[in-house]
Amino acid sequence: MIRFDRVSKSYPGSQGGLHEVSFHIEPGEMVFLTGHSGAGKSTLLRLVGLLERANRGQVWVNGHNLSRISSRRLPLFRRQVGMIFQDHRLLADRTVFDNVALPLVVAGLGQAEIRRRVQAALDKVGLLKKARALPVTLSGGEQQRVGIARAVVSRPPVVLADEPTGNLDPELSLEIMELFRQFNQVGVTLLIATHDLALVEHFSCRTLTLRDGRLVGDR
Amino acid sequence: MARRRRTNRLRASLQPRAWLLRHLQVFVSSLGRIWQRPFGNGMSILVIAIAIALPAGLQLLVSNLAQLAGHWEGGASATLFLKPEVSDRQVKALLQRLGNDQRIGALEHLTPQQALEEFRQHSGLSEAISLLEENPLPHVVLLKPADAGLSPERFQALVRELRSQPEVDRAMVDLQWVSRFRAMVQLLRRGSQVLAVLLSLAVVLVIGNTIRLEIQGRREEIEIVKLVGGSRAFIRRPFLYEGFWYGLLGGLTALLLLELSLLFLRGPVERLAQLYGGGFRLQGPDPALALAMLLVAVLLGVIGAWLAVQQQLDRIEPA
User: What is the pLDDT of residues B155-174, one digit of tens each?
Assistant: First the structure.
């Protein structure tokens, strides 16, 4: 589902980036991506979500060679990948419902279908009652769950999460991870970047470890 | 919840009804967005309106002047000097022929005697004239065209024809001032066109800049929409509609400004026209001009928005 073949990414005048990273994630896997900050976790996720392109090597996601996706088709590709961020990246002036509906509106779905799917997604993350609320009125954990609902509402085969529990206490973090596991159980491929090793220990999932832009562990 | 898809094609699914509904939604919401900042956006709209109203107003002035020129062309006249040797009988016959000509209106005949008398009164050379042994002046015929709106070219052609009459020695056409007036109107018309082009550019720039600021203000939203797979067209749409609204509102305001200005001018203009004894009435923008103003305004709005969008959207990428 996600395949890196000797992928390098460097930023001019900066130490960060990735060097010759190769791995393969099968469909339906749930994988943790760990490493100290600056090791390249975010860069790797950005390459998968095609927020950036690799300098060298090939990235394959869901059967697409990302170097072959033109900027015109880029939006269509992004619809196949759900992305979750530490800072949630919600629209402050839209309700929870509208935030979650955004990927479906963008994809051009009909109103009835949008309502049905958004309600299902909000139900799944336990926020159905807050559909009319604005994001600022929610707690950090709830905002993150809105972000998660938005990432899965269009039923993408791949979901990426960049430090999804970064600002949450352990109990909430566990709850969020439990949600991810539920999505994984219905077939979603998940790649979760986190530096919370205790959390990684708790779930016995495959873990990729990055250090200074190189893949140093895969277990 | 999630369903695995194994498609290797990236293709957008198009649902015409949802697409149309979405357009309608953005159409209305973009107007609402302008409404949200009534003062700032109102000022932009006023600037646009003035830029549209100025050339349109000048155009209106030009067409009113042209109408005035039509009124005054009755002032065009010609003078025929007959050959000295023609007899009174021949003169009478000529006058009869001219009187029967449908194209000729007012007709006035001055005998050499009358002409000399008039000359004596107006020239102040009565002493010198009394020394003349015989009257050197010929018969003179003054005439005006029957159709007051006759173009100078047609009138000139008529006079050329009269000159070839055997009794006529020379013919003079007095319509130089009409030609000058027309040339002036032409110049004004050309000036209004130049002004229209320049101010159209100004409208495009004003709307482009307004939309550019709007895009920058919604940077975060654009980034997020790009993250979830919003296409260029999707992101562009609300801004283009906003350009449309700016153009339309600017055009409507321009029409309002024109009407108000005319209302302000109408009284004095009509008094002036009465003093000159003319039935001249100040013409407002006719439906064709009004429609053209609105169409051009809308077009300029969309063009301005398009330029801003083309320049800005690619620069905003999710970080």
Answer: 888 888 888 888 888 888 87
